[in-house]
Every structure is written in C-alpha cells, then in structure tokens.
Amino acid sequence: MSKRDALIEKYADDLKNKIGVSPDMDLLRKVTIGCGPSIYNRDSSTVSGSDPSEIATVKNNYLIKKLGLKDGAALDDAIASVMEKYGKSNPNKYRAVVYYLLCQHFGKESVYNK
C-alpha cells in the first residue's frame, strides 16, 4: 500500500467514525490527489478551525479558486458547519476530509470528473 493510499484510508476512517458518513471513495481519492504534496506535511495536512488565516486559505484557495464559487456568507457558513461536524475539539482536521465535505456540501463533485 502506498503512502497516499494509507492516508486515504485514514481519511475514510475519520469520515466514518468522527463524522458518521460513508465516504464516496472515488471522490475522496480525487480530492486527496487534488491536495497535492500538502497531505504529506504534518502542518499543511491539517486545517485549524480556529485560525482565521487558515479559514481564509480554505475559502480562497479551495472554495473560490478550485470549486469556482462566489465569495459570500454561504462560504463562511459552510466552513463553520464542516468544522462543527468534524468536532471543534478535534485538533486533527485533515485538509482532504474538510475539502471532501465542502465539495459535497456545495454539490461540486463534477469539478473532479474532468
């Protein structure tokens, strides 16, 4: 099993056990690949839900640039909702899991079907 495959399994486990959703493994794999090398770095592989600059990065780099969404309160609300689902006290919110949940929240799975 490759290092990436092991991480994808870890992310799927988080989705099942911490959030209570059964992941679409194909979409999870595509979102994880889309994160690039950041998944291998301890700091960049996670998202701090309490750091405003980290939330801004998720909003600008993922929701607006990658998913093509328009800036607005709906983006902030979606990020807050995902952080709440993942558990505010959970320090390890994996970036790929957050992105996966946001992608599903906005119904933007088609972005990864290119």
List keywords for this structure.
114 residues, mainly alpha, Recoverin, domain 1, globular, single chain, 0% strand
Outline the fold blueprint.
Elements: H1 3-19, H2 25-34, H3 52-66, H4 73-86, H5 95-105
Helix pairs in contact: 1-2, 2-5, 4-5
Word description of this protein:
It is a single chain. Helices cover 59% and strands 0% of the residues. With 114 residues, it is mainly α. It has a single domain, classed as Jann4075-like (Recoverin, domain 1), CATH 1.10.238.120. The model has no long low-confidence stretch (mean pLDDT 94).
Q: What string gives the helices and strands in order?
A: HHHHH
CATH class: Mainly Alpha
CATH topology, what is it called? Recoverin, domain 1
Separate helix tally: 5
Percentage beta strand: under 5%
* Counted beta strands: 0
What is the average per-residue confidence, as pLDDT, rounded to a whole number?
94
Quaternary assembly: single chain
> How can the largest sheet be summarized?
none
Structural class: mainly alpha
Question: What is the gyration radius calculated from CA atoms?
Answer: 13 Å
Could you say which overall geometry the principal axes of the C-alpha atoms support? globular
How many structural domains? Answer: 1
- In terms of per-residue confidence, which ranges show pLDDT below 50 for 5 or more consecutive residues? none
Task: Please name the fourth-level CATH homologous superfamily.
Answer: Jann4075-like
| CATH architectural name | Orthogonal Bundle
Give the N-terminus to C-terminus distance in angstroms.
26 Å
Helix content: 55-70%
